[in-house]
Amino acid sequence: MSRILARALVLLVGVGVIAACSNGSNTSSNQSFSGTTIRVVTFTGPQIAEPLQRRAPDFEKATGAKVQIITVPFSDLYQKVLTDFSTKTNSYDATVFDPQWMGDYVPPGYLEDLTDRVKNDSALQWNDIAPFFRDFSATFKGKVYTIPLDGDFQMVYYRKDLLQKDGLKAPETWDDYISIAQHFQGKDLNGDGKPDYGSCLAMKRSAQSYWAWISIAAAYLQSQGTKQGAFFNTDTMQPLTNNPAAAAALTVYKQLSKIGPPEQLNQDVGDSRGLFVTGRCALSLDWGDIGPLAVDKTQSTVQDKVGAVILPGSKKVLDRSSNQLVDCNATLCPYATNGVNHSPFAAFGGWSGAINKAASAKVKDAAFAFLSYMSQPAQSSVDVTIGKTGFNPYRSSHFTNMGPWTASGMSDQAAKDYLGAIQSSLQSPNMVLDLRIPQTAFYQQTALDTALAQFLAGEISLSQTMTQITNQWNAKTDEIGRQSQLDAYRSSLSITK
Amino acid sequence: MRLRGVLVAATLLAFLLPLLWTALASLGVLPDNSSRPPSWRGSASLDHFAEVGIAEPAFWNELVTSVLTSACAAAIAVGAGFFAAYGLARAPFRSSRFVTQGFLVLASLPAMAYVIPLSDLMRRVHLLDSFAAVVLSEAAATAPLAVFVLHGAVAQLAPEWEEAAVLDGAGLFRVIGRVILPLVAPSVVATALVLFVLDWNMLLVPLVLTSGEIKTIPLGLSDFFTFERELDWPTAAAALIVSLAPVAALVGLFHRVLGRFSLDLATPA
Amino acid sequence: MRLTRRDRLFLFAPLALLLAGWLVLPALLGLLATFTTYSPFAIGVHFSGLANYAAVIRDPLFGSAARNVAVFTLVAVPLELVIGFSVAYLLRRPFHGRAALRVLLLLPWLVSPIASGVMWHFLFGSATGVVDFVLGWLGRPDLPSPLGDPRLALPAVIAVEVWRVAPFVTFLLLPSLASIPSERWEEATLSGASWTGRVRHVAIPAVRPLLLTITMLLTGLSLGTFDAVLILTGGGPGPATVTPALYSYNRAFGVNDWPVGATSGWLIAAAVLGAGLIYLRLSRTRFVE
């Protein structure tokens, strides 16, 4: 219970602080939406649905609208929303969903264009949202379709205390990551007399495995900014999955499968997080969630011992003209630091709110007001500090306003470390946008995930893995239509001729 | 005799140790496998049961939904199954036993074989995400088993039982209500209980037929393990114990009558 | 009593309606759809012959799934029968506390497959698991979870399912074994039969038709294995524990490949109906005897 009490306290303090600072500039209390019901669908779980449910009553009080949060299992959300919209059942007015699915939802016209609304809503403070989330994540073909509620990208977490003691620096490249992992693998890290692990990753099939692999591959694949794309050639729609860069990433991934817990192939993020915050791993790769979890006194034994850095990079990247891995130089890697190309991967893309175009005008207004309310700094800067919300920072003010962070129990130093890693990822012009084309689920969850699982299990060789992914992706692309898939891919990257 | 005692104890241990582990975890008592020999840490508390409602706010609603859907589905399946079983047992055609066995094959058919089109059909008749769709689909999935079991129970009854009533001028429903049902009531109750357990634990049918409105316990449990999972084994264990408790209590209360659930083919009297 | 036409209509109509609307009709519509490109999202639907079947059969992942489920069925069903029978045999004679024991022994079957998946994930794990706890007491080193090992994952999944289902077999067999008249046992003992002889000549003949029926049910259950692996392994590592049902579900609901999902669902149905024919055949020959 103490954990809940602590959270409630954090919340109260945070809300108080912010309410005092923002002197009620946001929602006007004119009951403008009385009688309007908004049905918002998202997935079940303490995350995402929790903040929506928690904040809905305040919004209802201020506006008179009624907010109904509907939850479905995560694995069914995509299909259920798509079925609802495409069959014109329209039982959902808005959804807080994975913006990756925009590729399936936007082209058929299921989602409301929010471009003008975000411009005209001063309380939303659109320009406070980090550029990557504004210009890429929320945008499709130059138009805004979603309001970001969560900043999702992967980072590397390391045990500051252990690395310091052994005179090691945080990993800059994947080679560093492997050598640090090897250094700690099999050593007793938490003092229980039993060997612990160098690195803990989620490698379970049908879980989060493929995102981890893309996080590694991105460093070798994309070096010239978000618009370059990391999945397909933006002229031919040829997959970038059969080349020396993909091979390098597969090799790293396979090595990491052996420098970790023996049951790593059946572990998802829940397991790897559990191991990391109980002090059993020196390194891990994850979304922002480990930061708040590591300071949670009820589960964590590594408070103030955790550092976070931007995803490791590579000194060699793919030269797309020669299809070879070559050393970074100023033209090839314009955004490199110390000759290392970093490509932070916005895996999944962060939960975002979107509105059903088929809803009535009044409901759309109310739904927009609710999503805006959730994203406004007054609300979101508290929500992103609570581990259980699953919301991670995505606004500039989330970094400058330290009050909620220290109120959540993070030490100043820990908050700075954690936010520093997020900020350096967020500000990177070389952020990798997750795949957003029709049938993304097939490309990633089916084709890529299966091939990776087979590769890790030793069932297929490295070259077979690359060929298999490439062939399946090409077959799917041709089945749907190469030109239309290419258009969608370019739209998602906001490439305009 | 002593050997049997040892064997029984060993069996009990093998089957129940995992559940004991789960029960302890739900109380916050976890083993510490890192010490030698392994020890225990954590002191018993009911906090994790309270956390179930926080991790899955709808959990207690789901419990109610599960009770209602399973009870209705079992009642419908047993009702429809009982009438048909009686009809088959008293049918004049000789292959009624063969038909009954056909029902067993149908009872063995996994739901996956047909739920994909079923979900589409339910959507088209606007029953998706409705109580009715879940109840009727679960009833249809389990009714064949009810027919098979109840046919066995009814076929064992000598027809003389009914003949006296018929001579007194009783119609079909009077015969069933006054004569047959009292005689086979234990089998009917036992069948209803087993079907209730099957419905209670059914995942696939509610999974594909609902989109958020109707949620049963297995759906809730699967949520404890999907996507953005944090590290809550004790909470999941508590949810598991809560979900097991109602059916365990039912089985404990009615264990005598449950012995009447028999898959034996009746030898016609 | 002699049933009139009207009586029979009353008796069969509810079941017929229920099964037709919520099982048979969807199944047949689904069968029809497997020969077309139908999907709820498709604009135009056209006949595609056996293309869907070819796509499923040619998919190596379905091949792995079929292989896994074959192994699963051939190993799990006999194990469930043997263990279930042995426990029932052990409990066949009344003793003090047997009723309570029967209820306790049924508990694993009351755990839903999905919950048993959640549970065993942790019980196999090394931090909080039961396996390593016991090994620790015996002074042995930890074993990594078999679920993370491509060779051990399927056996582990089978073991979990046997743990859950064998108690149900015991529950089904016990009344019949307990009701064998005691003279039969005594006769067998007097004629010098060992315990194997008693099992073979007294116990098994008494429950043979029942065993056949249970085998049919368990076979269907195994061929449709879905929730038992959904959370426990998600089908991994590699394709080590993918089943046809998991494959169908992922295709139809995960990636919207409706025709392929529905087609592989029908292949499961075909396998179960095939097993059903054997069952009907076997039980028929018995009657002719």
What does this protein structure show overall?
The complex is a heterotrimer of chains A (497), B (269) and C (289). With 497 residues, chain A is an alpha/beta fold. Chain A has helices spanning 2-22, 49-63, 74-86, 102-105, 115-120, 131-137, 160-165, 174-184, 209-221, 244-258, 269-277, 290-294, 361-375, 377-383, 396-400, 403-407, 412-426, 440-456, 462-480, 482-492; strands spanning 37-43, 66-72, 94-97, 139-140, 143-144, 147-148, 155-159, 197-200, 281-286, 306-309, 316-319, 324-327, 345-346, 352-355, 432-433. Chain A folds into 3 domains: 2-150 and 349-426, D-Maltodextrin-Binding Protein, domain 2; 155-347 and 428-433, Periplasmic binding protein-like II (D-Maltodextrin-Binding Protein, domain 2, 3-Layer(aba) Sandwich), CATH 3.40.190.10; 440-492. Chain A is 44% helix and 12% strand. In chain A, helix 1 (2-22) runs antiparallel to helix 14 (377-383). The relative contact order of chain A is 0.17. The model of chain A is unreliable at 13-29 (pLDDT under 50). By secondary structure, chain B is mostly helical. Chain B has one domain: MetI-like (MetI-like fold, Orthogonal Bundle), CATH 1.10.3720.10. In chain B, 70% of the residues lie in helices and 2% in strands. Chain B has a two-stranded antiparallel ribbon with strand order 1-2. Chain C has 289 residues and is mostly helical. Chain C is built from 12 helices and no strands. In chain C, helix 3 (60-90) packs parallel to helix 7 (153-178) and helix 4 (98-110) packs antiparallel against helix 7. The A-B interface holds A 1, 4, 41, 43-50, 53, 70-76, 80, 83-84, 87, 89, 91, 192-194, 268-270, 273-274, 277, 289, 293, 299, 387-388, 390 and B 34-36, 47, 50-51, 54-58, 123, 128-129, 207, 210-213, 219-220, 222-223, 225-231.
